[in-house]
């Protein structure tokens, strides 16, 4: 059966938001008087839901550290909203790709570590909501790398895992797909480097939006 569902991660896959997220994490750390992480360390948790990401980055796993974790989350959200006057941009070529894919037989959906409110904001700023028939966010499912949001999307669209493709820029995205036996495409222009992506053995790897566009067109046409 042809592929029916294309599942996209958002940050680092469709939108070039990496530096903004890193800067906001570092500003939140400084505001809360904790050690400011390096750019590289902050990058590694992009893609996870916010609270699990903060706990992982700052090693806040004890019950007595919950208050600090929540304080960092609140600071991050405030700082991120303050920077919303300068919206992040889609990667070059994304709109053309979405236009072509929307005209195909496949449905497009989003599986993101953003909260629902955050996804709705970037959809509005980029005028892209109409491309997607469904989505799952961090506050509606278990955090990546749990495949929960993929399972929800498959059930909602009545599609089997083997008839869907997961596209993302992190090992968390690839791990979700791998656990369900789903075809996956790792993009190397986002957050995680090729070595980290390869730990989850993605089905395909691409280095640019142009390559992604070409590969998806080939897969949904040939399949």
Can you put this structure into words, describing what you see?
It is a single chain. By secondary structure, this protein is an alpha/beta fold. The protein has two domains: 5-16 and 88-222, 3-Layer(aba) Sandwich (Rossmann fold); 18-85, DNA polymerase, domain 1 (Orthogonal Bundle). It contains ten helices and eight strands. It has helices at 18-31, 39-44, 50-58, 66-82, 94-102, 116-126, 148-157, 171-180, 194-198, 209-222, and strands at 5-8, 15-16, 89-90, 107-111, 134-136, 164-168, 183-187, 204-206. The strands form two sheets. It has a six-stranded parallel β-sheet, sandwiched between helices. A two-stranded antiparallel sheet has the order 2-3. Strand 6, helix 8 (171-180) and strand 7 form a beta-alpha-beta unit. Helix 1 (18-31) crosses helix 4 and helix 3 packs across helix 4. The mean pLDDT is 94.
How would you sum up this structure in a few lines?
The protein has 223 residues and is α/β, with parallel strands linked by helices.
Strand order of the largest sheet: 5-4-1-6-7-8
Q: How would the global form be characterised? A: globular
Report how far the terminal alpha carbons are from each other. 7 Å
By DSSP, the count of extended strands is: 8
The percent range for helix content is 40-55%
Tell me which oligomeric state these chains represent. Answer: single chain
Indicate the radius of gyration in whole angstroms. Answer: 17 Å
Number of domains: 2
The CATH class assignment of the largest domain is Alpha Beta
Low-pLDDT windows of residues: none
Largest sheet: 6 strands, parallel
Strand content: 5-15%
CATH superfamily of the largest domain: HAD superfamily/HAD-like
Number of helices: 10
